[in-house]
Amino acid sequence: MATRMRAFARRRAAATTAVAVALAAGAFVAIMPFLFMVSTSLKTLVETLTRVDPLPFRAEFWPVEPQWNNYVDAWVRADFSIFFRNSVITAAVTVAGVLATSTLAAYAFAKMRFAGRVLVFSLLLGTLIIPESVYLVPNFILITKLGWNDRLAGLTVPFMASAFYIFLLRQFFNQLPDELIESARIDGAGHVRSFLGIVLPLSRAPLVTVIFLAFIGSWNALQWPLVATRTERWRPLTVGLTMFISESGPEWHLRMAGSVIAVAPVVLLYLLAQRQFTEAISRSGIKG
């Protein structure tokens, strides 16, 4: 019996080691583009041509002396201040709208009983199979009719509702015991009070996940801002970075510095929300 236990422990340790090695290799492959971007952003123009190596274990991969002023040069030359401001405002408004619509709709599908609930939810999920490019022309016609071209509303309102976020929150709300809602109703609380006082306080993890995903979607948007804007008045950072890359020529160190500036807020938000993000993803699929 002891021999079998030792053999089982060895096999389990070997399997754990193999999984750890595979995950480490995958993480290395995933992080390599970011390391290359950061290292190149800290080099001089000459070093981007003479000190090139694909592996971060070698000295040529990194700059001789980090050029932190590259970020300042990229910021000033690309006039990132207005683009950065536009991205922050657009993302904040979009996230607020997504939270308002998704939480209310998810609560209705999870905790309210009404005729056609399953059918409506199924139709809503069916919209997930429609490619985003299909919405491009109808959305453009809509904002044109409303006079929202080159305005904040045109960049935010069309994306304030999402079937995926409603589905994600509905899955989590379904896991909350119905007895909590029924007890609140016995005490005289309606759906609004139950929603605000019970459901939302218990849903921190999925709400943080929705905020994170909606922020990324708005922050990284490029195609729609190019269609919906004509001037720099409301163009986001992605458009500013694209313009800067096309104008900067072979100055790869400044290109990468601008890319780091654009990626940094997303990475920072992920580090802050990582725990809630993984918790919500793991718990949302326990039951339908």
Summarize the structure.
The protein has 288 residues and is mainly α. Helix content is 72%, strand content 0%.
In total, the number of domains comes to 2
Which class of secondary structure composition applies to the elements?
mainly alpha
Task: Kindly estimate the percentage of residues that lie in beta strands according to DSSP.
Answer: under 5%
Query: Which range best describes the helical content: under 10%, 10-25%, 25-40%, 40-55%, 55-70% or over 70%?
Result: over 70%
Kindly describe this structure.
The structure is a single chain. The protein is an all-alpha fold. The protein has helices at residues 2-41, 47-50, 69-77, 80-111, 117-126, 136-146, 152-156, 163-175, 178-186, 191-199, 204-219, 223-228, 237-248, 252-283. The chain starts with a helix and ends in a 5-residue tail after the last helix. The chain has two domains: 2-67, no CATH class; 72-283, MetI-like fold (Orthogonal Bundle). α1 (2-41) packs antiparallel against α14 (252-283) and α4 packs antiparallel against α13. The chain is 72% helix and 0% strand. It is built from 14 helices and no strands.
